[in-house]
Amino acid sequence: MSASHTITHPSFGQMSADRVIIFDTTLRDGEQSPGFSMNLTEKLRMAEALATLGVDVIEAGFPVASKGDFESVHQIAKNTNGPVICALARTGGAKDIAAAGEALAPAKRKRIHNFISTSPLHMKYKLRMEPETVLDLITTGNTAARNLTDDVEWSAEDGSRTEPDFLCRCVEAAIKAGATTINIPDTVGYATPEDMERIFSMLRERVPGAERVIFSAHNHNDLGLAVANTLASVRGGARQIECTINGIGERAGNAALEEIVMAMRTRHDQYPFTTGINTPGLLKVSRMLATITSFDVQPNKAIVGRNAFAHESGIHQDGVLKNAATYEIMTPESVGWSRSSLVMGKHSGRAAFRDKLKALGYGDLEDSKLNDAFSRFKDLADRKKVVYDEDIVALVDDEVRDHDHIRFGALSLASQSGKPSEAELTLHVDGKTVAAQASGNGPVDAAFNALRTAFPHEARLALFSVGAVTEGTDAQARTTVRLEEDGKMVDGQGADADTVVSAVRAYVHALNKLLVKRTRAEPEALTA
């Protein structure tokens, strides 16, 4: 698209050359990360948050993968207003495309996104297909998708390692068959910014019909270049960006939505493009995702990390006090950080607690979850001298996680040096109270043994990590538990002033996620 060129798209109407579509794949590509999983309720919450944030397209899942994936896409299509709802399908899979169309049926605006590998390596070893067969499938697959919706996207998997001449032929075939968006992914994170800009410039110059479609970039972060490659793709003519909140995704992840959007906003002189993202909502959505997935954002993460606007150096602090622009290239408020000074303690009431949660980016909690979180806050305030924002975040994160099947009840421990520890545990499993007793080599081992007695399972404990939320001997513990079962991994987190209770809460959270993960299955590889 030239500076003056406009394009008419079936979902977005007439678009100017400086408008960039934000395609969020947190719920599809992001959820494929090892250890990540979301249940239906959590996916609906994320979809609503993404809609409020202003993303243009939500890739909701891969309907043919499992009944759970199909239902997730279907419910998001039914209940989420605003963005285009997109479902993934394999180009050569007739069942895939039919399932995508059926799952998307309730959506007001919908897209089928089909893909097939085009690189020599993938065609030979993954697909075991000749190039001409791949070309035929591109035609039949996109034609089938176009019969179900006017908005069709086609992706050249491993596009960045595809031979240029063949890539041009594939893109031309997809456009002729009805694709309205063409995505060229750097599937394995191999490309450089120069590569991606060159690929998109080449396709726009060489492919007949290129002026009628939107080009899209989907970059993985294996070399830490996903955001740079995405911005370079936009320079080359891409006008859709495929990204995820917090950059989550397979292996090293995807291009991070918040980083791309703020790069274009902050350096508008270099990237004179616009998006529909409500940037003050970035932190809230980032925190929501971290809570749901139990994967904390690293402290020095750009935009949404807790140190992103922190200044410890005396020289930096002096400069910021005199003029924030000396060391801050964007305001904290522009991405959702708050400078609230409201102090919380044991005399704080429910209204003040609710206001604090809003200031921390949580929005409105359901009454039941607000009541549970407030009750735990009051208990914590009675036990701690000072309740920090980090303490509130930890306990609220723990409460707002969905525990559909298993909930922590109570724990009683007896421990003495040199002797086995004893644990009595109560769980609520599908509404029924289950009690169990067990001994172990220490209180945590005893508690976990009691949990395995109360809810029998074969998952292996692959990681157990304990950290303090804040400083001091009265600090809350935040525990991470990783469970592994049949090659599937899930992480759970829990927080409590009692370290063993935090460990049990984390284990319970991991178990709930594992129950969701058990229902997920990837379709077999498409081969000739």
From TrEMBL:
One Pfam family per UniProt: LeuA_dimer
Region (Regulatory domain): 407-528
Domain of life: Bacteria
InterPro entries: 2-IPM_HCS-like (IPR050073), 2-isopropylmalate_synth_dimer (IPR013709), AIPM/Hcit_synth_CS (IPR002034), Aldolase_TIM (IPR013785), LeuA/HCS_post-cat (IPR054691), LeuA_allosteric_dom_sf (IPR036230), LeuA_bact_synth (IPR005671), PYR_CT (IPR000891)
Catalysed transformations (reactions): 3-methyl-2-oxobutanoate + acetyl-CoA + H2O = (2S)-2-isopropylmalate + CoA + H(+)
Assigned EC number: 2.3.3.13
Keywords from the named record: Acyltransferase, Amino-acid biosynthesis, Branched-chain amino acid biosynthesis, Cytoplasm, Leucine biosynthesis, Manganese, Metal-binding, Transferase
Any Gene Ontology biological process: L-leucine biosynthetic process
Keyword Manganese: yes
Family matches, as SUPFAM superfamilies: 2-isopropylmalate synthase LeuA, allosteric (dimerisation) domain, Aldolase
Binding site for Mn(2+): 29, 218, 220, 254
Known function: Catalyzes the condensation of the acetyl group of acetyl-CoA with 3-methyl-2-oxobutanoate (2-ketoisovalerate) to form 3-carboxy-3-hydroxy-4-methylpentanoate (2-isopropylmalate).
Subunit structure and binding partners: Homodimer.
UniProt-recorded name of the protein: 2-isopropylmalate synthase
